[in-house]
Design a protein that fits this description.
heterodimer, A: 125 residues, alpha+beta, Alpha-Beta Plaits, two-stranded antiparallel ribbon, 24% helix, globular, B: 437 residues, mainly alpha, 3 domains, 19 helices
Chain lengths: 125, 437
């Protein structure tokens, strides 16, 4: 099963303690371990929200905005797609990511549309 | 049906429901199918045991029957899926899924056939089921309900009545929780080592919530509060589940700590309400009505937990409960030791509610003024806002300090905030004693 790992920076998290952030393992080891094993499929760092570009089509015209749609305190700093047999495995992988210590990780389970013919369409409808 | 068969089915239901359900759940990963199959197995037992006699190993019989039912259902579904697939192909869609799903089906069916079920580890499926139902990725109310439904075999209607919600609401809650298990990919497994400690805490927390829900009802006037008897029974269910957890998690002293705590508290249940359904404090309770044999068991369990020398919040709370249970009268309580244990508890698990309870011990050891200061030190914590025990305790301390007028103000505040009938009567009686009309 696939999960999108949203890597969040959470500067206003009241439970964030400097010693937790300081104890975060280096990202290189994480990348080596999980991209090496194939558990991580795709991922990268993202430019900050200030560099976001919004696109909407309204009345047949593409409207483009600079910056993100919503001002949230958490910013998505990066993402990884991971392939894990179950949620606990995904949680273990996420908990070893440095930003789980210095920020937060949000795991979003894939909900396959099945358009590629794999037939997997089960989910939470 | 002959009586022995009926009794055997009932015994098996109490003892084996979770195991039967767990065996199918592990093989299929489908909790709905597991529930349906377990139900079928017990219905079949009712039908056949009175005719053919009770099997030597009722649990194994039930598990086999449930697995066979699950296998039938899966095969039927597969045939239907193949039929519709053929229909789709006739309609010229040749880019279909092919047979990709078959290997999964085969694997599940093999799992159901031989079960991967080892009689050497009959508890394995129960452990997995417990961790699954108590997964912290599930909403807390769903965890509590699903644990009851899956591990005790209570029906949805029974769970609903115990939580005073309509059956349709509880049914929805269970459906949503099971759907979330599927959607997020929660597997029927013991958590990996790195997560085990946190997940054990999560299991124990669910059992404690369940116990409190039931134990609170023992301080209510049973005849007048709707659903009180059903809620009271939850406390006993929680004790049984804690006993199971302590057995299933032998390396976790906190699991035994929780069992000890629940046993020691539950032993006092008969003494928690007085005449007129008024809640009684520890000091007011008739200690001859505490259940001695349950206290003895709790003390013994606590000793084995403490012997591991890995203290935790449940063990410390159980040790505090043990001090109360050991005192023949309230006056004989070893308050200095109680206070010392509250200090340990605050260190392990800081909480304003614990700090408030600690203030009760402070009053006994250091006097009423020190206790009032301790209460004021936590009184501003937003977590205590609207909590009736804060003004109730202040009222008690102010009364003892010879300030009845101030106590009356606090009692009135407590009465505004209290929601349980037994406690309301307790506070009303105290108010009447201070401000007779």
């Amino acid at each position: 099963m696939r999960y999108l790992m949203l890597v969040l920076s959470t500067p206003e998290d009241p439970e964030l303690r400097p010693e937790d952030a300081a104890g975060a393992p280096p990202i290189e080891g994480w990348v080596e371990k999980y991209y090496g094993s194939g558990a991580a499929v795709l991922g990268d760092r993202l430019r900050p929200p200030a560099d976001a570009v919004g696109v909407r089509v309204r009345g047949g015209r593409a409207l483009v905005t600079d910056g993100p749609f919503s001002e949230t305190k958490e910013a998505i700093g990066g993402f990884d797609v991971i392939d894990a047999p179950d949620l606990d495995t995904a949680i273990t992988i996420a908990s070893e990511h440095p930003m789980a210590h210095g920020g937060a990780i949000e795991l979003r389970p894939f909900w396959p549309l099945g358009l590629d013919g794999s037939g997997a369409t089960d989910g939470g409808a | 049906m002959t009586a022995p068969a009926a009794v055997a089915v009932e015994d098996a239901f109490r003892g084996e429901w979770g195991r039967v359900l767990g065996a199918v759940a592990r093989a299929t990963g489908d909790l709905d199918l597991a529930e349906e199959s377990a139900q079928e197995a017990f219905v079949a037992a009712l039908r056949t045991w009175s005719r053919d006699g009770v099997p030597d190993r009722p649990g194994a019989w039930l598990t086999t029957t449930a697995r066979r039912h699950a296998l039938d259902v899966l095969r039927r579904r597969r045939v239907e899926a193949e039929k519709s697939e053929t229909a789709v192909r006739r309609g010229e869609r040749v880019d279909g899924p092919g047979r990709a799903g078959d290997s999964v089906h085969d694997e599940v069916e093999r799992g159901l056939d031989d079960g991967g079920w080892s009689p050497d580890d009959p508890d394995g499926d129960l452990v997995r089921l417990l961790f699954t139902c108590c997964h912290p990725a599930l909403p807390l109310d769903g965890r509590v309900a699903l644990t009851l439904r899956s591990l005790t075999g209570m029906t949805t209607g029974q769970v609903a009545r115990a939580f005073l919600v309509p059956e349709a609401t509880m049914s929805q809650r269970l459906v949503r929780t099971k759907r979330r298990i599927r959607a997020t990919g929660i597997a029927f497994r013991v958590p990996p080592p790195a997560l085990l400690a946190g997940r054990t805490d999560a299991v124990l927390a669910v059992l404690y919530v369940l116990f409190t829900e039931g134990y609170d009802a023992w301080a209510e006037p049973a005849d007048e509060v709707e659903g009180c008897a059903e809620r009271r029974a939850l406390a006993g269910d929680a004790v049984r589940l804690a006993r199971l957890a302590a057995r299933l998690l032998p390396d976790e002293p906190e699991a035994r700590g929780l069992l000890a705590l629940l046993l020691l508290q539950h032993a006092r249940r008969d003494a928690r309400t007085g005449d007129d359904g008024v809640a009684l404090t520890l000091a007011e309770q008739d200690r001859t009505r505490w259940r001695r044999e349950e206290i003895d068991e709790g003390l013994a369990v606590l000793d084995t937990a403490l012997a591991a020398r890995r203290p935790g919040p449940y063990q410390v709370q159980a040790a505090i409960a043990a001090l109360h249970c050991r005192a023949a009268t309230a006056a004989e309580t070893d308050w200095a030791e109680v206070l010392a244990l509250y200090d340990v508890l605050l260190d392990l698990a800081p909480s304003p509610v614990v700090a408030l309870n600690r203030a009760v011990a402070v009053a006994e050891v250091r006097g009423v003024d020190a206790a009032l200061a301790a209460v004021d030190a936590v009184g501003q914590d937003p977590a205590l806002a609207g909590y009736h025990l804060l003004p109730a305790l202040r009222a008690d301390l102010l009364t003892r300090a010879g300030r009845p007028a101030d106590a009356v103000v606090e009692l009135r505040r407590a009465l505004d905030q209290v929601d349980r009938e037994g406690d309301r009567r307790l506070l009303s009686a105290r108010l009447a004693a201070l401000a007779p009309r």
